[in-house]
Amino acid sequence: GADHLQIFRDTIVQTRVILQTDTIYVHRGAVWTVQQTSHRPSISQWSSSSDFFAPFATSIAAPRTDRPLGALLLARHEDAERLPPGLAGLLVRLPIRSFVPERPGSRSILTDLPPSMSPPPERRHGLNDLHLGQFSLGAAAGWYLPDGPEVSWIPGFQTGLLLGAELNRKSGLWLQLGYSKATFETDQMGGETGIPEVEPPADDFQFNLAEVPQPSLELALGLRYALFRKGIWTPYLGAGYGLQFRLPVEITYEFTNSALGVDWKLEQAIRPDGRPKGAFLALLGIDADLSRRWAARLQGAYRLPVASARTNPQSWGLQGSLFYRFQEK
User: Fold this and answer.
1) pLDDT value at position 52?
2) Calpha distance 287→282 (Å, rounded)
3) What's the whole-number mean pLDDT along residues 119-147?
4) DSSP secondary structure of 37-58
């Protein structure tokens, strides 16, 4: 009759999924192939089915019929897969078992999605994520204390320029060009001390001690790793390798005449052999962000020489630095 729609073909279930701001809105519709008629059915002849659970207060509109809607949805037919013009590009087929009714609060009603609609895999950071970025340049200054055998070391100072480059959010490269100066005193000449022997001014003068400054340039390269980030603070560990180049110095020799109570000093310039002294470096420090581009750093360092000697001892250092980032953090 004019008041009823005659169903001749099975049901086609089509679904349109819209992704927006991490929320999935699911719209389900049922399309039937019906007998052509010039009569337009009234809205009152359509009802909302409650056979299926639908989130977000959505529903399935279906014509009134004696056949259960579930039977219509499951009894599909290939000839019924025809869509009105303009709708074919808007609808995407999903498996029927994707819409298993679930209780509110459960994980998700979308299961067995087609591969093209599956969520992207979780991105994990790895070696492929390494890249040079966020370069920084800074200046450092601090305290320097060698610790060698059989000589008495006087603490000195160290200063230098720092260049950094991040590899990722956790690790980075560092390069330091520095200058350090410390002094040691010894009561021996020649041998392993590397101090040239000199003759006293007279036979009644005895050698007392030699004061030997140790100015040097150092070039070091290494890696640093951030332990964690909390607020403006970033503690880190570091390791590297450095080369020290000794600079020309003037050694002060001190002789004493005990009978006369006279001290006599002699200065003599020496030039090192020019061979660099290698050492492994271990770092422990913390960064403090002052702004998006400026940061301060406090760093402790331990230097272990490759070939230990009196003039190339292990050393400890503590320095502070201020550096500038060329890209905002």
Assistant:
1) 44
2) 16
3) 75
4) -SPPPPGGGEEEE-SS--STT-
Query: Averaging pLDDT over each range in 129-133, 192-196, 205-209, 234-238, which range is the top one?
Result: 234-238
pTM of the predicted model over 0.85: no
Q: Say if residues 316 and 302 touch (Cβ distance below 8 Å).
A: yes
Class of domain 130-325: mainly beta
273 dihedral zone (left: phi>0; alpha: psi -120 to 50; beta) = alpha
All structural domains of the chain with their residue ranges? 12-117, 130-325
> Contact at 8 Å (CB) between 321 and 288?
no
User: What is the average pLDDT across 51-80?
Assistant: 48
Pairing of strands 206-226, 249-257: antiparallel
Helix (H, G, I), strand (E, B) or coil at 30: strand
Assess contact for 177 and 161: CB atoms under 8 A: yes
Cβ-based burial of 275 (10 A; exposed 0-12, middle 13-18, buried ≥19): exposed
In Å, what is the CA distance from 240 to each residue of 74, 176, 288, 302, 304? 69, 10, 22, 10, 11
Which residues on adjacent β-strands are paired with residue 63?
A: 46
Beta pairing class for 277-289 and 294-305: antiparallel
Q: CA 132 to CA 168: how far, in whole Å?
A: 8
Q: Is 218 exposed, middle or buried (0-12, 13-18, 19+ CB in 10 A)?
A: buried
Looking at residue 252, its amino acid is T
pLDDT at 140 over 70: yes
The helix (run of H) or strand (run of E) holding residue 70 is helix 69-74
**Separation CA 117–CA 108 (nearest Å):** 14
Query: Maximum distance among all alpha carbons in the chain?
Result: 141
Residue 99 — very low, low, confident or very high, per pLDDT cuts 50/70/90? very low
